[in-house]
Design a protein that fits this description.
Residues 17-130 form the Rhodanese domain. With 130 residues, the protein is of the alpha/beta class. The chain contains 6 helices and 5 strands.
Length: 130
């Protein structure tokens, strides 16, 4: 079992072909529309959603993201791969996705982050959906 959180573009390309995955793009809708990883879903709210730390705020946070991740196709059996633009420009939004998934109880061994983000994927010459 691989417990590494960060995966390279080439590792991700191999993983896509051998296991069920949901690719989650945390960038804004315009960047997603311009180009994204094949089959990725856009959940920019990972970055923009603000919650209060009251009991009600935490319930709202849990409900919001449980619904968003379920709608994206996550059931706990698939590997969730979260990515942003480059990991130096997204203020850690892919890492926030990891934390949200763990907060919701998603299996730790089923969450990955694309090291270097979309830029690394593109720079590796891998296909994008446009």
């Amino acid at each position: 079992m691989n417990n590494r959180v960060l995966v390279s573009p080439s590792e991700l390309a191999a993983m896509i072909n051998r296991e069920p995955m949901v690719l989650i793009d945390t960038r804004d809708a315009a960047s997603y529309a311009e180009a994204h990883l094949p089959g990725a879903v856009n959940i920019h709210e990972i970055f923009t959603y603000l919650a209060t730390t009251t009991p009600e705020g935490l319930v709202a946070l849990r409900d919001t993201f449980a619904q968003a991740f379920a709608k994206a196709g996550l059931s706990g059996r698939e590997t969730a791969l979260v990515y942003e633009q480059s990991m130096t420009t997204g203020f850690g939004q892919s890492c926030r996705g990891y934390v949200l998934l763990r907060y919701l109880g998603y299996p730790r061994d089923k969450i990955r982050i694309l090291h270097g983000g979309y830029n690394a994927w593109r720079n590796a010459g891998l296909p994008s959906h446009q």
